[in-house]
Amino acid sequence: MKLTVRDAARLLSVSEKSIYRWIKQGAIPAYQVNEQYRFNRAELLEWATSRKIQVSPEIFAEPEGSQPAIPVLSEALRDGGVYYRIGGTDKSSVLRSVVQIMRLPDEVDSEFLYQVLLAREALGSTGIGEGIAIPHVRNPIVLHLSQPMVTLCFLETPVDFGALDGQKVSILFTLISPTVRAHLQLLARLGFALRDPAFKQAVLTQASRDDIIAALQKAEATLAPATSPPKNNSSGIVEPGK
Q: Could you count the other beta carbons within 10 Å of the beta carbon of residue 73?
């Protein structure tokens, strides 16, 4: 969820003047969007806790009704779309291109999403090897969405994402979710699906949209219905910075 200066002041039980002072000092994590400052609820909590600042219990709560049923991965991908020959010469320009083609609801600020994706990459690469990266926001609740979305993009030119295997990235699965629960479920399921030979081959060879989704549906058919986040990360995806 995006928080305003007024929201941050209320949740931290301080004046708005204090918030602006911390912003000027570079002390508080904030994003500037359209000449206004916005805050990530989870980052704000982490920041306040590290400085032993007393916070309102409200900061721990997700918005009412923010736990929609989690769709199967193929539905999230169908909603997010599959795109080919996406431009960009480096990580930042590629992410800019990806955000521009995403099917975002009107209430989602695309510039804010771009800045948050960049901030997540600064914590550590989302490249998982074999030319694949999974850009996502560090804390999924920053976005106003009714359903999670997965967007698959194939790049025109592979770019360096700082992946551990050193291979340039040409395939991006971008995840955006309304809740942490949905984010963890989709991330784990995507990791599982990428171990399926048929789906992985369809992705690596940049098969047609229909073939990719069909292969994904077969891969996830063996998965149990989504219930709660896994107790450990069985997806094989290691998220740097967590």
A: 27
Please tell me the number of Cα atoms within 13 Å of 214 on its side-chain side.
6
Work out the average pLDDT over 120-138: 86
127: β partners: 133
* Positions marked active-site: 136
Q: Which domains does the chain have, with CATH numbers?
A: 2-60 (1.10.1660.10), 73-220 (3.40.930.10)
The answer to whether 183 and 228 have CB atoms below 8 angstroms apart is no
Sign of CA dihedral 141, 143, 144, 148: negative
Crossing angle of the two packed helices 180-193 and 209-220, in degrees rounded to 10: 100
pTM for the structure as a whole: 0.67
pLDDT in tens, 213-238: 999 999 988 765 544 444 444 444 43
Distance CA 233, CA 239 (A): 10
Give the residue among 125, 114, 116, 112 at the shortest CA–CA distance from 241: 125
